[in-house]
Design brief:
The complex is a heterodimer.
Chain A: H1 3-15, H2 22-43, E1 46-51, E2 54-59, H3 61-89, H4 107-134, H5 137-166, H6 175-192, H7 196-215, H8 223-243, H9 245-248, H10 274-277, H11 285-311, H12 313-323, H13 325-330, H14 335-361, H15 371-384, H16 389-408, H17 411-416, H18 426-440
Antiparallel strand pairs in A: 1-2
Helix pairs in contact in A: 1-3, 2-3, 4-5, 5-11, 5-14, 5-15, 5-16, 6-7, 6-8, 6-14, 7-14, 11-12, 11-14, 12-14, 15-16
Chain B: H1 3-6, H2 8-20, E1 24-33, E2 36-46, E3 51-56, H3 62-69, E4 77-82, E5 85-86, H4 92-96, E6 100-103, H5 115-122, H6 131-141, H7 143-147, H8 158-170, E7 176-180, H9 188-205, E8 208-213, H10 216-222, E9 225-230, E10 233-239, H11 240-245, H12 247-254
The structure holds adenosine-5'-diphosphate and magnesium ion (MG).
Organism (chain A): Microvirga alba
GO cellular component, one term (chain A): plasma membrane
Pfam families (chain A): BPD_transp_2 (PF02653), DUF3382 (PF11862)
Chain lengths: 471, 259
Amino acid sequence: MNAPSITTSSAQDTAVPSRFNLAAALKDAFITALIALGLSIPILSYKTEQNGSDLFLASRWRLVAIFCAIVFVLRVLEHAFLATRAARKALPDPHQATEPVHAEPSAYQKVSRFAIPMFLGVAVSFPILVYLVQGGLNESRYWVDLGILILTYVMLGWGLNIVVGLAGLLDLGYVAFYAVGAYSYALLSTTFGLSFWICLPLAGILAAFWGMILGFPVLRLRGDYLAIVTLAFGEIIRLVLINWVDLTNGGAGISSIPRASFFGLPFTAGEGGFADTFGLEFHGMHRMIFLYYLILALALLTNFVTMRLRRLPIGRAWEALREDEIACRSLGINTTNTKLTAFAIGAMFGGFAGSFFAVRQGFVSPESFNFLESAIILAIVVLGGMGSQIGVAIAAIVLVGGPEMLRNLTFLKAVFGEGFDPNEYRLLLFGMGMVAMMVWRPRGLISEREPSVILKERKAISGSLVKEGHG
Amino acid sequence: MSAGTSNPMQSHQSAAAATHQPLLSVRGVKTYYGNIIALKGVDMDVNEGEIVTLIGANGAGKSTLMMTIFGNPRAREGTITYAGRDITKMPTHDIARLSIAQSPEGRRIFPRMTVFENLQMGASINGLAHFDQDLERVCTLFPRLKERLQQRGGTLSGGEQQMLAIARALMSRPKLLLLDEPSLGLAPLIVKQIFTIIKELNEKDGMTVFLVEQNAYHALKLAHRGYVMVTGNITLSGTGKELLENPQVRAAYLEGGHH
Ligand SMILES: Nc1ncnc2c1ncn2[C@@H]1O[C@H](COP(=O)(O)OP(=O)(O)O)[C@@H](O)[C@H]1O
Ligand SMILES: [Mg+2]
């Protein structure tokens, strides 16, 4: 709340590194708690309750007290954390040297060495792990479902990352391509009976086509203006889906979309089904686990393609475009084509994710493609650190999985009383998370750009030592 | 890399052109920013193998002329010809493919990309065909960049960024190099280094250089010919020596004492 005081105190701490001033921290935390109290009086302390037709106020002072206590403790911890960090940082700044600095591996390199194999391992073995931990297919349904949800957002985040993170084109209407993909599969499969495996590339192509359609009018726009036009584009697509009733069945949506089959084998109980063919006992979870691996494969494909493209001229051109459009043009890069390919390829992955969504739900309606979805996907990219693949994955897990986790924290009920429903606080927590991120990691979880070429003789300079935007 | 050299007909033509007409010629060019006129009908020539400098006060329109040659902004009137081709209406990225390279005002390097990647971007026109060779060459010209290939562009010092901007422009193997105020904001020693390198490029590699400068003394000493621009008009032209001795030039651009 009074963030400036944090910076000043940490600056003072730098001068006297190892000392953590407890009295000052307690005093500051007390003031913070008072502010929290002041704020919670109008917000938290009374609640209207309905009893029959009567409406009366119930006081919730217990909740307020708990809330203030949490704020107090967090603030003390924050001070302790900042003090230790300042002590660690009180070493001479290596960047004052004029000679090249042979720095330790960058944060990215440190994270990637352990995190990537670990994430991949967990992702691949997730259904098995869940099966073992939960002790049965039925019990693991919730978890596999959650895994699918998270991976869908990871994929969407990676897709949007091409447009926003790499090419630097702020796109607030990404959900439009998700919708195009979903409706492509829904319409093609229900009307023409095409299978998922044929529809998937078609949906990608159609979404890419719409990406280009969006791309043309916005070629000259950047930043805020681009954001507004793409936002409008997202809404236009949604409104068309609602109002073009003949084609899309309007707000009622399209239902009974054919389910995915295992390369032709349907997930049904009868003869010739997946379970029958492989000699397994039929179980509804087979389909879920198949869907899990399907979205995992699609997400990894997105990642793989992005990583490859970054090393090719087109990917380099995207990044250069993000950095400086005029310089790009004078280096002979056709910025028109570069932008259109970014929109098209980003949209294509959105389309893939969309058809996956349709095949998983078996039902699509315009409801699912509102602005909030775009905002969440964009938040994933921004919080992940624009352009960082692993950062986007972590952000997706936190932003999509985190609120879901709250549902299961039954002890919250014990603390806040029986009527407490964490779901009601989801957006609040979402907002708090965002604020915390912007305070501690204003450039995203993994803010460092990993070079697309790493030279063999490592003369790497750690980007983390150099604050970006300051020089 | 230009298709022209492999085509005997065309190379014959351009060889003939070199004797008759300049490599770059600007005729009656007027450039506007909205309704404001920035270039009021500029005539200028750059012959093959020359260093030509353009000097003038702040806001005279020097950078505008350089950018107009690159088609951004576009000349509203007049023509710009390069190697016998009218490039007045050509898109910027196509002009860059005619072996003209530019180190623009403000350097405009890619700050989050490494020095190495910046250089790759410079070579992207010819698809990195002789990248290793050219990298070697710019590293010899600018040893400071060699030490910093993995460092991000934005973290370089001003002088290093300027070197990178020039090096990046050289990566496309240009015949004509346009430099906008390469000495801006740099320490005298580094200015000297950069001017030495420009001279070397011209004498050893036969590169044609069009140099926009405020640092009139150094620029005119270096250049074969020079132009003086005042509020969108070319007011004087001549050899470097002539301009250095010209009393008007001395009064306006040299008495400040850049020596
Ligand atoms: N993008 C622009 N929009 C409007 N006016 C501009 C723009 N760029 C330059 N100008 C104007 O054009 C004139 C010439 O500018 P410039 O070519 O940058 O001068 P120089 O490089 O000689 O210092 C100046 O009066 C400047 O204000
Ligand atoms: Mg200028």
